[in-house]
Each structure stands twice: as structure tokens, then as C-alpha cells.
Write a structure and sequence with these properties.
The chain is α+β, with helices and mostly antiparallel strands and 290 residues long. 61% of the residues lie in helices and 14% in strands. The protein contains eight helices and six strands.
């Protein structure tokens, strides 16, 4: 589902800004944008995000401004190695310039900052607190927006469910006449194919009854109506229902397909085809539901 939230929190010398954007996706797909020096925080961001999201693609952008003093260590061995190598090159190629201090301290490995994850004390606590608070607030904004979209989706899905229910009742009303029609067609067809008095009438009636029974769609209709009732109940739940709705829609589609394969009644076939279209529209909407 679509959602957007943003928040900023400051603790001590650390300010954390979080922006979260979510769009529809069948599963939960998290993407975090974070400065390389804070990459160690990504698993924590994933875990905190899973506490709020179960489905959808989420793009999470985290900006951290840390103004606390940082500890810098001088690697004398690296500096000496750079210096000696530069002097050898100067002597061999007779360069006029030489390695100065400003250039030396910028070379990789000469000055080393302490890692974020290794810090113990107020800076690390401030960072984690600000991160959790800003991410929590941004997620709440996302959830509010998704709830509004969810209410709109629910209204649309209830419209399709209402249509399916009406068509199921109409088919149920047509079942008795359809069964009689099927039986009558079978008797007429067999009468044309079989010579008079060549088959026992009682045996013929039994065979017609068996074939007609195989065309009965009462069980499919009962299961279909049960699935519609469950769908209604799930739409009123406050918990995660997206995957359950997907499963019910698969079962609804299965029952409608079986119903269509068993019936020979044109009106029931017309209603069944219309029901398939409604189920497919419901499936499209259910992809947006968490």
C-alpha cells in the first residue's frame, strides 16, 4: 500500500532524519539509503521497520548529522612508508616537488577515525535513540496514510463482494430448474441414440440420475458462499490479512471454474463468467492489502 512519512529527532550532538516511502508489493521489500560510514546500522533499521510493515516495497532514507568529537589515531608506520617511498621516487626521477604534510595526512590509512559501532558512551546512545524515535514517527505517518487508503480499498472490495453474493443467490435460484433441464436433455438424447425397448427403463433412469448428479453444483455454491462470508470477516479484522485474502481468492476462483465446467445452463454460465471477472478485480485490489 502507498504511504509516506518523515521525521527528525535530535539527541545530544546527533540529529537523525528519516524519510519512508512505501508502494504496493506482494511481499515485504525493504531498501535503506544510508551513508557508508553508518552501514552497520542497516540491520537495526530493517528490524525496526519489520515491527510496522509486513507487506510492500519500502524505501527508507536515513540522514545522520553527528557533531560529537571524534577520536583520530595516527598510523605512524603508514606515514613513514609513504614518506620513504616518496623520497625514493624524488631521488630516482629528480622531481622538484616533495611530499608535504597536508598531502601526507590525506593518504589512506594515515589518520584513522574510530568506528561508529565501536563507540561506547553517550554518542552511541544518542545516535540509537534519535534513530529509533525518528524512524518510529516516520512509520506512524506511513501507517496513517495506509489506513486511509485501506478504508477506500475496503469500500471498493465490499462492492465486488456484494455483487458476487447477489450472483451466487441468483445461481442458487436457478439450480433446481437447471437440474431438471439437464435431466430432460439427457433423456431426449438417449432416446435418440438407443432403440426403443432395447434398454431397461429403470436402468436408463438410474444412469440419467447419475449423470445429472455429477452436474450438480450445489456443493460448489455452498463453499463459494462460505468463502464470501470469510472474506467479509477478514475485511473487518485489524490484523494482517493480505495473505489470507489471497488464499480465499484462489479458492473462490477454483469454485467458480468448477461450477462453470459442470453446468450446461446458459444463464448460470453467464453469471459464472461475470463472477470470474469480479474475483479477478478483487484479486487486483487484494494485492494492495497488508
Amino acid at each position: 500500500m502507498t504511504g509516506y512519512g518523515t521525521a527528525t529527532a535530535t539527541r545530544g550532538e546527533t540529529t537523525v532524519s528519516v524519510e519512508v516511502r512505501t508502494v504496493n508489493h506482494r511481499f515485504l521489500d525493504l531498501h535503506v539509503r544510508l551513508a557508508r560510514e553508518y552501514a552497520a546500522l542497516e540491520p537495526e533499521i530493517h528490524q525496526l521497520s519489520r515491527n510496522h510493515l509486513q507487506r510492500g516495497r519500502a524505501d527508507i532514507s536515513v540522514t545522520i548529522q553527528a557533531n560529537a568529537p571524534i577520536s583520530v589515531a595516527l598510523n605512524k608506520a603508514a606515514a613513514r612508508s609513504y614518506f620513504e617511498s616518496a623520497r625514493m621516487l624524488q631521488q630516482e626521477f629528480e622531481f622538484q616537488d616533495f611530499l608535504d604534510l597536508r598531502t601526507l595526512i590525506r593518504l589512506p590509512g594515515v589518520l584513522q577515525e574510530s568506528e561508529i559501532g565501536a563507540a561506547r558512551g553517550s554518542f552511541n546512545e544518542h545516535l540509537m535513540t534519535a534513530l529509533k524515535e525518528s524512524l518510529e514517527e516516520a512509520m506512524q505517518g506511513v501507517l496513517r496514510m495506509r489506513r486511509r487508503e485501506g478504508e477506500a480499498l475496503k469500500a471498493v472490495m465490499l462492492t465486488y463482494l456484494d455483487g458476487l453474493g447477489k450472483k451466487a443467490k441468483e445461481i442458487l435460484r436457478l439450480v433446481p430448474s437447471s437440474a431438471e433441464e439437464t435431466k430432460r436433455k439427457l433423456e431426449n438424447r438417449l432416446a435418440q441414440l438407443v432403440a426403443p425397448n432395447s434398454v431397461d427403463p429403470q436402468r436408463l433412469a438410474q444412469e440419467v440420475a447419475i449423470i445429472a448428479d455429477r452436474s450438480d453444483i450445489s456443493e460448489e455454491l455452498a463453499r463459494l458462499c462460505s468463502h464470501l462470508d470469510q472474506f467479509h470477516q477478514l475485511l473487518d479484522c485489524d490484523t494482517e490479512v493480505g495473505k489470507k485474502l489471497d488464499f480465499l481468492l484462489q479458492e473462490l476462483q477454483r469454485e467458480v471454474n468448477t461450477l462453470l465446467s459442470k453446468t450446461g445452463n446458459l444463464e448460470i454460465t453467464r453469471l459464472g463468467v461475470s463472477m470470474k471477472a469480479d474475483v479477478e478485480k478483487l484479486r487486483e485490489q487484494a494485492q494492495n492489502v497488508e
